[in-house]
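Moderator note: this is an archived Q&A kept for reference. The question asked for a predicted structure of one protein chain; the sequence and the answer are reproduced below.
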Amino acid sequence: MPGAVAWGGMISGLLYIGATLTLLVAVGKNDISVLQGIVQAVSHMAGRVGVAWIVTPFALMLSISIAGIGSAWMGGSARIPFVAGLDSYMPSWLGRVHPKYRTPHAALIVQAVVSLILIVINFYASGGVQEAFQTMLRWRWFCNWCRSCMSLRRC
């Protein structure tokens, strides 16, 4: 198994480097938008080749992919409070499982509420992408404080 992990990491790294180089070849580094780099490159190259119609299906598939990634991150992040609730490191109600669907509904709801609060704070506190990122970095102290409080509870 460790060999497969190493190979997977190497292949992922090579694919990332290859995709980045392809993006830079398609659109120059000064012309790439931070938010639309991939779609911009596909649009530029599709226009050169004469298949501009492919941009809309590509953007749709990219949107579905991003929604799936977001769903996986939300579901995966909610499992941590769920297990912590089972092990009594956090309130036990976080370890409850829905009787019909067998999902950690309490942990998922808490994760959704916390994420919503952080998203709303980011939208109101920032004026752009860089400002939103800086706001999230300022919240790092709060996350560290919560983690230390959970660690102290175990002692």
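Archived answer notes: The longest helix spans residues 55-86.
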